[in-house]
Amino acid sequence: DRQTLVAVLQFLRRSNLRESEEILRREARLLGDDLGAAALSPASAGLLVGSGSDADSGEALLGRGTGAAAVAIGGSVATVATSSPGVAAVAAVPPGKGGARGSCGVGASSRRDPWEGGVRAPGFPRGAGTRGSVSGAVVVEDQPDVSAVLSAYNQQGDPTLYEEYYSGLKHFIECSLDCHRAELSQLFYPLFVHMYLELVYNQHESEAKSFFERFHGDQECYYQDDLRVLSSLTKKEHMKGNETMLDFRTSKFVLRISRDSYQLLKRHLQEKQNNQIWNIVQEHLYIDIFDGMPRSKQQIDAMVGSLAGEAKREANKAKVFFGLLKEPEFDVPLDDEDEEGENEEGKPKKKKPKKDNVGSKSKKQDPNAPPQNRIPLPELKDSDKLDKVMNMKEAARRVRLGPECLPSICFYTFLNAYQGLTAVDITDDSSMIVGGFADSTVRVWSVTPKKLRSVKTAADLSLIDKESDDVLERIMDEKTASELKILYGHSGPVYGTSFSPDRNYLLSCSEDGTVRLWSLQTFTCLVGYKGHNYPVWDTQFSPYGYYFVSGGHDRVARLWATDHYQPLRIFAGHLADVTCTRFHPNSNYIATGSADRTIRLWDVLNGNCVRIFTGHKGPIHSLAFSPNGRFLATGATDGRVLLWDIGHGLMVGELKGHTDTVYALRFSRDGEILASGSMDNTVRLWDAVKAFEDLETDDFTTATGHINLPENSQDLLLGTYMTKSTPVVHLHFTRRNLLLAAGAYSSQ
């Protein structure tokens, strides 16, 4: 398109970008000033530059080319990456605009086929865990610039033909062989959305409406919620502030398709010269091609359903150290705790070895464990050692669970919780329970006969004999003893609570955007951590204490340490709210579940996303790691519980049975049983050993995602326990494997 090219060259000249101008001329084979002399080569034809009057507006203009060409222009620094004749990618950043908003992640595919590489389209900086940047200038990209993102919809075909294009493709896919049809049907939804948005953006409102009405019924049932949002976008103005819309635009929709199905599609589109669909596929989809048999309908259905399609296979290739850290060794005093327990390296005086003593486990280093000092962990205090000793004694009396020996369940019902119960946690030793409420209070109860007491005032403490043996008893003020303590401080509903492993601290996070750290010695707030600007949905302490994680409406999870005001790590990459967070048992990784219907696993050391799991059809609300660190269980609003093998990055099971959101998941202490609690007022117990045995995790499965889930998860269901009318919001196994459950009675 000669006119466009002239406009671009003139713009470059006006902005004193001689170098870029020369390069573009060379690429377009226009050497003299006579622009009529030569036409563009086909690969770089169709460069279209979005309008943007002055270079200082900070909006990098967006190019959209039919080949892998992408030109983005704005000011002084220009970077060029060329790979084959006539295929150029140019990006420029306005002078002095280090933090220009519309930055472009520009890439030109070096492969022959511009689809296969999944070229990252310009102007979609916020992809999976990355920030868009242009070499030569540091561009910090947080929210994609709306006008920059939308201008990619400028180029359009004849609006009246959209229905014809779509129904033509639909007819082709429906008439293709069964083995290809399931794979190619994945195209329907992303194409439907992009074609609809393109019509709306270019103000063909009536065509958009009829296109939506004609084809929205064909989409898979799990996209209904997204389609409801989409149907409300009927005017160009609506698209400006809509997050779902921006998510769809800024992230490439990933489809995993076998090479045969892909070749079939490509041939069809080239024969039909169906450029509109061809453009959308190139610009907005990332086709992840694998060699081998096409996947079946149920294999695909198990894995799709998230906001951005499936995860790229590359996303789950990184090595993950899922093993457990070696337990420190110390003396196990027989009865009364004597002071010699302090010498760290002293070999434990072994008591009679019990069935599964924790001490015996820790001798060998797990080959899959991270190095002991991979991340700094807090030193063990004497009180922690005493607690570990108690834990070992309890573990010796632990009940071995299994299909023949199910746990007893003790249910804590919050009655008359008119304040609205929004979060629950129970201490590891099961001595205290905390509730977060919608009236912004945090309430802590003692569930043992021992009452909760605060430390005495400073004046009284000065009178105590510090050398006495029972000094820890004496510092407590008996006058303050009560079963319940109420903590005031938040200014909005409390959505998450978490006790520290040593029971000295309690975390709570709230709609007010803060995470608060409370002392359980004085029952006062010690710190308010401010980092999230919007509601914080969940928070959790590391199994080693000191670190904690929070996730919120700003789509980001943050890692904190109790003694730092600022977060240590920011995990960015989800396309919607981070709804739940969990530490891996070795504390080196964090799992986050999101309303974008994906689960991500993040490396605490460097902040990288090392796993992306897709398959849920609704927002994720619960996560649980198996005690051996190898597996992850996830629950969502779709009522399904999915099981994942972390090492191989694969889905290995699907537990169907719940009819409503799964809000609580917990493995028993030895990992034999998985308990799930739901809004459908039931607790269900599943056979975890059977679910994870003889898994097919060979290289082929890992490479292609050909997972074969057992047809029937009912053989894994060991029991279902109904409450009268109490949704289950929390589950906890005591150290002896008694299952505690909690929820608030609802009178409806």
UniProtKB/TrEMBL annotation:
Alphabetically ordered keywords of this record: Nucleus, Repeat, Transcription, Transcription regulation, WD repeat
Keyword Repeat among UniProt keywords: yes
An MF annotation (GO) of this entry: RNA polymerase II general transcription initiation factor activity
Main location: nucleus
Name of the protein this chain belongs to: Transcription initiation factor TFIID subunit 5
Cellular component, GO, one term: transcription factor TFIID complex
GO biological process: transcription initiation at RNA polymerase II promoter
Biological function: The TFIID basal transcription factor complex plays a major role in the initiation of RNA polymerase II (Pol II)-dependent transcription. TFIID recognizes and binds promoters with or without a TATA box via its subunit TBP, a TATA-box-binding protein, and promotes assembly of the pre-initiation complex (PIC). The TFIID complex consists of TBP and TBP-associated factors (TAFs), including TAF1, TAF2, TAF3, TAF4, TAF5, TAF6, TAF7, TAF8, TAF9, TAF10, TAF11, TAF12 and TAF13. The TFIID complex structure can be divided into 3 modules TFIID-A, TFIID-B, and TFIID-C.
Compositional bias (Acidic residues): 332-343
InterPro entries reported in the protein's UniProt record: LisH, TFIID_NTD2, TFIID_NTD2_sf, WD40/YVTN_repeat-like_dom_sf, WD40_PAC1, WD40_repeat_CS, WD40_repeat_dom_sf, WD40_rpt
Ranges of residues in domain TFIID subunit TAF5 NTD2: 157-285
Similarity comment text for this entry: Belongs to the WD repeat TAF5 family.
Domain of life per record: Eukaryota
UniProt subcellular location: Nucleus
Sequence ranges of the WD repeats: 414-455, 487-522, 529-560, 571-612, 613-646, 655-687
Stretches with biased composition (Basic and acidic residues): 355-366
